[in-house]
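Why run this: before we spend reagent on co-expression, it is cheaper to look at a predicted model of the complex and decide which construct boundaries make sense. The entries below are exactly what would go into the expression plan.
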Amino acid sequence: MTTQELLIKAKEAKGALSTITAEDIDRALLLMADLLVQHTDSILSANALDLDAARGTISEVMLDRLLLTPERIAGMADGIRQVASLPSPLGRVLKHHERGDGLVIERISVALGVVAIIYESRPNVTSDAAALALKSGNVCVLRCGKEAHRSAAAIVEALREGLKKAGLPEDMVLLIEDTTRQSANELMTADGYVDLLIPRGGKGLISACVRNATVPCIQTGTGICHIYVDSAADQDMALNIIENAKCSRPSVCNAEEVLVVAEDIAGEFLPKLRKRLVDDRAEHPVELRLDEKAAKIIDGTPAGENDFDTEFLDYILAVKVVKDVEEAIAHINRHSTGHSEAIITENAEAAEKFTRAIDSSSVYVNASTRFTDGGEFGLGCEMGISTQKLHARGPMGLEELNTYKYIIKGKGHIR
Amino acid sequence: MTTQELLIKAKEAKGALSTITAEDIDRALLLMADLLVQHTDSILSANALDLDAARGTISEVMLDRLLLTPERIAGMADGIRQVASLPSPLGRVLKHHERGDGLVIERISVALGVVAIIYESRPNVTSDAAALALKSGNVCVLRCGKEAHRSAAAIVEALREGLKKAGLPEDMVLLIEDTTRQSANELMTADGYVDLLIPRGGKGLISACVRNATVPCIQTGTGICHIYVDSAADQDMALNIIENAKCSRPSVCNAEEVLVVAEDIAGEFLPKLRKRLVDDRAEHPVELRLDEKAAKIIDGTPAGENDFDTEFLDYILAVKVVKDVEEAIAHINRHSTGHSEAIITENAEAAEKFTRAIDSSSVYVNASTRFTDGGEFGLGCEMGISTQKLHARGPMGLEELNTYKYIIKGKGHIR
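The model came back. Tokens follow.
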């Protein structure tokens, strides 16, 4: 099936959405979870083919991301069941306005329609994204990277069987066959077919979407996250938070990439930082890339031109010394990707200044940037982390996969 | 000043936003209103030059739109005062989540940053848009069409004097000097400078934005609005609503352009429609453009290929006969621009089906589409009517000119 044919099917399935209830959706999700487990063998066989093809071409870390096991499939099914158990975002009355003349105006949450997701090599994204899109009332079009495509196809087959068993249109979940750049481009310009496109992937994919997309699009994920250690910081707390934000999982978007330190305390703090992140870490010591001022205080790699604009996703931390919170804010707002930033301070005024002025989705006081996550924020789930300001900002849950419409009821009202 | 220089000034002014309070903004708005009235003479002189230049090149209707009088300027000032009196959308706690471990996560409404508006020949949009953008905490970049540019410049001068008097940065309101397509294109691609672009204008401008914009953009205004007269309609009510929706102000986006009639009643209803919209209207009779079935019942112009996809903005109505509400829904969802549609029916089931299935910003039961308006909807004001689904749908008020950010407060929390 060509991408265009598939999009026509998605649009047809969308036509059925208006008669489907939240209960229908939950019933389908539970069946989809069951079918996923029942299809374990065929999914593992497909995954074995993906792994064979990928071995040697991608890193061990990426191979592990690609690997499925019976336990991981059971985990994916549990993920779907958990999404089913969340309250439906559909049909909420967001505003109610009754005019003096009796005209009743309500703003009601409704599905967006067709939500398309471009993602890369993690096969579990297939079921996660489909479950979230479906729970929020949408038809889901998936475009998986080529490394995981056989696995994704086997997963989607199970999910569609669940939809069918629930009496819903199978085409509410569709996987694009073409894994070349061509299909990504077709999605970006599928005006009238795609109501929302979510690119989940690297910088190249995101910026291609910004440049080329004519369909509505939400940028996700790129995180050059900063932590600013204020002159009034609790320095032990700062060390704990920095080690957590940098080292607990360096490959994720909410990991810290840049440390900004107030010059008043840099002489005292930076040697402690070096001890904590370099000398005390036998496994995975952090490479510090130091600006000129920091390099006068501790040893490390001199920071290059791009080190304050790079999402390292590795055990590397750029370090900059600034005069005060104002200079920290100016630096961060110039170099950040709008994801997550933190200030470590005991000074309430500095904290207030920082949280007001920093123009990012999530601004922390005395906590690790690693909390930027739908689950951690209490959304129950997550479709990605928006780094844009329109529609959704930060972790996107079910509500962010809805739009609203006004329904206005009159008795012959004219204006 | 080049557009690029102006955008740098806008970005600098945005840096000051975080220290400005809602009270500062209201005080500035009231001063801006006063200054506008005080500058009446200079604004009228500038407007006279605009009118002289435009005469002969644009229609009488457009000339009237361009014309300012002391009363109209006073009205613009009152508009600003009214915006000042609305509650501030800033700093609302949209969500509050305290975790078991004491981490407090709040979602807070904040300004978008720099809001740019491209508009055409109505000088009053200058003060309206500036007041709304400012009230919602944003820096406002205005790009006015060439016909009204001298008037807009005189208005902006008054507004900036008000800002200065209030002690706020004058550059919170900026007017782009260049009125050629070049400046519109520069705005569309001003990544990092423009946080939201609102094109207010014709189809050409909107579709240029969809194609070319790399900055976040909200499509506004194009309205191919439908009214469906169901077989269970109160036909007198239908006639009243249709005449209102079509004729009360045909040049606006919420006017009806297409009538869809159930075939069961078409034989009875269409002759009444013709009498009401054509024969009984000595002034401005409506031209009916009839599909084949309608043409068998009443006289009119045979509908051409594009008549069901045209925003006439004139005393013209396309008429189509359909089998039932399902066919009406299918036709409307295929041809509508997602603005406003109505069903006229006494049948609750048909009404429910229609409101659920129609994929438009505003869906009416037994009321005129002409109500789609920020003021009529109780928003107190309006920046335009969004026909897209992301971020804002339907009339945009102050809240829609905000985004949110998460502010997370911990005591050394790590994940």
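Chain B has a mean pLDDT of 95. Residues 46 and 256 of chain B are 36 Å apart (CA to CA). Bring this page to Monday's planning discussion.
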